[in-house]
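Notes from hallway chat w/ T.B., transcribed later so I don't forget. T.B. wanted the structure written out for a chain they're using in a teaching module, and asked if we could keep both sequence and C-alpha cells in one place. Agreed to drop them here.
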Amino acid sequence: MVEKVYVTYNQVHKLCQASASHILSSFQPNLMIAIGGGGYVPARILRSFLKRPGSPNIPIQAIGLSLYETLSASDPVEQVGKKVTRTQWLDLSSLEMSNLVGKNVLIVDEVDDTRTTLEYAVRELEKDVEAASEKLGRRGEKTRFSIFVLHVSAQSSAVRE
C-alpha cells in the first residue's frame, strides 16, 4: 500500500525552481506533457522557471493515466493497481503529431511510485512518434523523452534496484 505524502504549494514551487537549471542545461525541452491530475500543477510551475528570455513559453499537453485503486472513501491509503488505465490521450489529429517528431519532450508527474505509469507513457508516446515519423517521412529526426517528478517513493527506488 502507498501512503499519501502531502506537500505545500511552496514546497512544489521550490522543487520545480531547484530542478529547472539542470533541466535547461541537460535537456532543453520544447514540449511538456503533464500526466493528470498530479502533473498539471508542477508542469505549469516548471514552465515558468524554464522560460528563456525572448523565447515563447514551452507548450504543455495533457494525458490522463490511472494506476491507483482506492480502498475506501475514508482511507488515506491507496492500493497501487496493476494495470494502467488511459483516461485521456493526445488528440493526434488536432495536435498534428509533427509537433512531437524531433522534439525534446519532458513528461511531468507528481510522484513515481512504481515506474509503471511513466514507463507506459513513454512507451505509448514512442509508438505514436514512430507512426508519425513514418507517416510524415521524417524517420531521421530523433524525438527525446525525459521525465520530471517531484517525488520518487521508496517503493519505486526498490523497483529500480
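Follow-up for T.B.: Residues 116-136 form the longest helix (21 residues). Might be a good example for the class.
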